[in-house]
Amino acid sequence: MDFLPDPFPLLSAFLQWLAVIAVIFSSVLLITFTSNLVSNGAAGAALYGQSLGQSLVEIFSTSVSRCYALAKLTFTEAIRRKALFVFVVFAVLFMFAGWFLSDPDQSAKYAKDAVKIHVTFILNVLTWLTMIVMLLLACIGIPEDIRLRSIHTVVTKPARRFEIVLSRILGYVGVGTVLLGIMSATSLVWIYRQVPVSARSELTARQPIWGQLSFLDRMGNETTAGINVGDIWDYRSYIEGATKSRAIWRFENVTPAMLTTMTDEDGKTYEALRLESRIEAFRSHKGNMDRTTRFQYIILNPERNLEVTAATLEIGDEFSGRTDGIRRTLIAETKDNESKTVDLINDLVAKDGSLTIAVACTDPGQYLGMARSDLFIRLPDAPFAVTFFKAILGIWLFMVLTVTLGVTASTFVKGPFAIMTIFTFLTVSITGREFIRKLLSDEWKGGGAFESAYRIPTYMNDTTDLPSNPGTQLIKWVDWIMNGFLWLIQQILPNVSYFNMTGYVANGFDVDNWNTLLPAVLVTIGYFIPCVLIGYYCLRSRELEAK
């Protein structure tokens, strides 16, 4: 997993949500209005306006006390339907999971793997158990009430159908909150007890500060990327050793508060900026097998023309990363070969608050590979429980989304069909959203479905332009229409990747609040509002006597 989340464009996402909602509801209003005109003639317009006005009055006169009473009733019914039996499955999994997750090798070398395995298992179990139980409850509630005619007891009272849909969602969310709360608290205790003693130091939550990455080539000129050493996966770019080639990170808003107290080999404490790196070495020759590849941290201040070598280090276990401290007090060499003391914050941080750190390889014939997320400033770690319960909040939000979709589907189809509908909807969201994105982007050559169907029998390469004639223009036009439909489908499908925060917790990182947690909250709210309205109008327009 890449722990460098993409920036979340809050304003553009909100405007896009408004556009999609406007298109959907405008289409629904147009279709229903046309249907009324066809079936009732000119009087249909008046009836439609009257019905729409009544529905708006019902929505805006929702009673909190009635919603609370109905939600409480929903909670009680869910308990009577043996929803708490999920604890039995949960307890069985916990009793026997230790047999398969425990590693006889308790050495510190595999400490991170032990934490990753246990945390991933727990969060996946909580996600699937909660989703399955709540999907079943949410999808069978209203259809069962209609089948047993128990809903008539509520409908004949002053309770409105909007309140019924809203209360169903709130009641099932309450049940899921109780289930998830008990299981998550038990899971945290189980993790602390099951993780080997040698690995408990890895139960932490790193708080990274990411920088912007740029490169210099072997002559010292700026370039957009480093050297490609022949790896198919071009995630990392490489710099050449013993040249002017550099990988340069620029960190914004560096303050003294980012400094931490560290201890050297002699047991003395000092102020330092803590850096964590995952630099990958590519060796063009083995050389001395007893010596690893060396690299340097170089602090740059272009405004004052300062360049200070902060440390010369060796690549250790490049796959597990390393943590180093850049002392606040450093020694700089002047042009007259004299030494002077510089302060990391006062002398090397630019006026705009930015700090520039370059990484250079000192060994000739060797290469160092780096991506933007391979070096970051590591702030004081947060408690593991904090990031763990952030991941639990993500599961809870996914549960709210599942319940909302399930209750909405149950207002217009029967229970089994509602379960299949929502399960398919979520499955496509998980597996198909990225596929649709690639179809709509330029990542895959060859055009749309009809253009590809034309290229295959004609043995035309996907990079060759189509011949210009009316037939190919028609193909492109049809593909454009289909791409518009796929775009609308992509906007309707939720981006469920925001809810999956397992990678952060399992690898010891704090969950990003702005770019991961906030989008999960907004996606849930974005589906809750239209789904409640859709469920209300579906329940209002259906015959409650139908079985």
Automatic annotation (TrEMBL):
Transmembrane segments annotated in the record for this chain: 14-33, 83-101, 121-142, 169-192, 382-405, 517-539
Keywords: Membrane, Transmembrane, Transmembrane helix
PANTHER family xref list: ABC TRANSPORTER PERMEASE (PTHR43471), SLL1107 PROTEIN (PTHR43471:SF10)
Protein's recorded name: ABC-2 family transporter protein
